[in-house]
Amino acid sequence: MTTTELGPRQIEDAAIEYVIGREREQGRTARDTRGTGVGDLLSGDRVIVVKACGTSSRGHELWLEPSHYVAARGEPDGFWLYLVENVAQGDPAHFRLIRLGEDRLQELLERAREQRFWTVPVPVRVYDEVAREG
């Protein structure tokens, strides 16, 4: 059996769809709010940020956008961080969902560190040129 691994956008979309389905199982109706600045999903009284992991997030740090950090600290009962793991392999039957919210999330946020960094784009054209050069 050949497994096709998913790319970054496909991983994100698969994780979002998976969480929407899991929220439905819990009796909540989640809707995609990506790009609105509110989080990734609104589900009942929850603002959910979904972190899609290709494999496992065990022992790793999670990056939160500043607006998400502020929202999580300001609405400790209504802000949730959902980790969807093992997404790159493509089969939702093998995904794992870890929900962090309320006191557990606040405990983790107490140890959060603000960092500043620069992202450097590497356009496909440049990547391909450099890769050909060896």
Outline of this structure?
The chain is an alpha+beta fold. Helices cover 34% and strands 19% of the residues. The chain has a 5-stranded mixed β-sheet with strand order 1-2-3-4-5, sandwiched between helices.
Description:
This is Protein NO VEIN C-terminal domain-containing protein. InterPro entries: NOV_C. It holds the Pfam family NOV_C. The chain is an alpha+beta fold. It has one domain: Trna Endonuclease, Chain: A, domain 1 (3-Layer(aba) Sandwich), CATH 3.40.1350. A 5-stranded mixed β-sheet has the order 1-2-3-4-5, with helices on both faces. The two termini are 33 Å apart. 17% of the residues are buried. The model has no long low-confidence stretch (mean pLDDT 92).
Give a count of the beta strands, DSSP E runs of length 2 or more.
5
Class by helix and strand content?
alpha+beta
Strand order of the largest sheet: 1-2-3-4-5
CATH architecture term? 3-Layer(aba) Sandwich
Q: What integer is the average pLDDT?
A: 92
Pfam families: NOV_C (PF13020)
Domain Protein NO VEIN C-terminal: 11-92
InterPro entries: NOV_C
Protein name: Protein NO VEIN C-terminal domain-containing protein
